[in-house]
Write a structure and sequence with these properties.
By secondary structure, the chain is α+β, with helices and mostly antiparallel strands. Helix content is 19%, strand content 38%. It is rod-shaped, with a radius of gyration of 32 Å.
């Protein structure tokens, strides 16, 4: 859909483009709300379920368990060459309902240890308990070979659920370091799934311009500094599952870290640009793009001249109006914005005197456009104010 945006700053021709749906370009850490929603859909490796263990006393509790260790379809490795399992009975761990003794059996994974999967998994969740509020750093690798550093922190007297997702699938998670007490990463469960039920979000962008459903004949204007600033609002984007959304803005395919959140302001130089908003819930991405052209004040006046030429006015009246508009265009080209504004003011008076009685709709169109040019090139210099020049009423 192509539309013209009307308002402060520039002539903006916008094309709304729907982007591809179920994909995003990097490994993501899932929001806790998303993790909680999808948790019942995930398979789990819960160390209580393994025949390796029985009750609170573990066969490998003293001598350790061999590394690598394959359980429930995943392979764990520890740099020590063995694993230290533990029975957690303190308030820092939640009793596992699968253990009749009401305790929680866990594995210690030291720095340098890893968890790998026989096939890439869309979602992996690590259930971390019993390590207090120590910080930790993970290295996550997906099926494409992309690696991402993920930092997290344990929860004192609680559970830390670290959800990871990638469209290429998660292939492994390695422990880079554990801070605080420098103890190991303490795993209570590993949960995963090849696919999860999820509705993709819908991206929507509004601006401080008025969006019309079809192109209009209104000419928009750049300011005297050769650029325009747009206030963009993506807060109307939505997610059917109610998942929190992450917002990312790109200008001409270049991401700007400073442009984050649902609402932002973007300043553009003259020329053609494309602004893209992407929204994702961690599992699926959607986007919308605005193709933008920012033109100079001189170009805006030249488009106004085209309106006059295309009108049904007599050649005599057209020539009279065009002479004034060309003078304004030349003033803007020389950087004399004050003179250009005065010449546009004279043009407005000409339209009132020569056009209003013949074609009220055309007169309104010409005056409103000229007013907008005057207002846009008002850079604090003395001259006519566009806000004080009122368009003649339509008849």
């Amino acid at each position: 859909m192509k539309t013209t945006l009307i308002g402060r700053g520039a002539i903006i021709t916008a094309t709304l483009v729907a982007l591809a749906g179920p994909a995003f370009a990097q490994i993501r850490v899932l929001d806790q709300q998303v993790v909680t929603r999808i948790l019942p859909e995930l398979r789990e490796v819960d160390f209580e379920d393994l025949p390796l263990f029985s009750g609170p006393h573990l066969p490998g509790e003293t001598q350790g368990l061999p590394s690598p260790l394959t359980v429930g379809g995943i392979t764990l490795q520890d740099p020590r060459g063995f694993f230290r399992p533990a029975v957690c009975t303190s308030p820092t761990c939640q009793p596992d309902p699968d253990n009749t003794n009401g305790v929680n059996i866990e594995l210690f994974l030291d720095a340098g240890g890893s968890i790998s999967f026989p096939q890439t998994l869309r979602v992996v969740v690590l259930d971390i308990q019993g390590m207090g509020d120590d910080p930790f750093t993970l290295v996550v690798t997906d099926g494409s070979g992309e690696r991402e550093i993920v930092t997290g922190q344990g929860v004192l007297y609680g559970v830390a659920l670290i959800g990871l997702a990638s469209p290429a699938g998660i292939s492994s998670v390695a422990v880079q370091s554990v801070g605080g007490s420098r103890g190991p990463l303490v795993l209570a469960r590993v949960l995963f799934a090849e696919t999860v039920p999820n509705n993709c979000p819908e991206a929507r962008v509004l601006s401080d311009r008025t969006l019309s459903p079809a192109p209009t004949n209104i000419v928009e204007i750049a300011n005297c500094k050769g650029r325009t600033c747009l206030h963009l609002d993506g807060s109307m984007s939505s997610d059917a599952d109610g998942d929190p959304l992450n917002y990312r803005w790109l200008v001409d395919d270049t991401p700007f870290e400073s442009l984050s959140g649902a609402v932002t302001t973007i300043c553009l130089e003259t020329g053609r640009h494309e602004i893209t908003l992407t929204v994702d819930d961690g599992l699926c991405l959607a986007g919308a793009a605005l193709g933008i052209e920012v033109i100079t004040p001189r170009q805006a006046v030249e488009r106004l001249i085209e309106k006059v030429i295309d009108s049904d006015l007599s050649r005599r009246h057209q020539r009279s109006l065009i002479v004034t508009l060309k003078a304004a265009a030349n003033s803007f080209a020389r950087g004399n914005f004050n003179a250009g504004r005065w010449q546009l003011s004279a043009f407005i008076h000409q339209v009132r005197a020569q056009v209003l009685g013949k074609d009220a709709d055309l007169a309104n169109d010409l005056v409103v456009t000229a007013q907008e040019i005057i207002r846009q090139v008002d850079c604090g210099k003395k001259g006519p104010s566009g806000s004080k020049i009122h368009a003649p009423p339509a008849k």
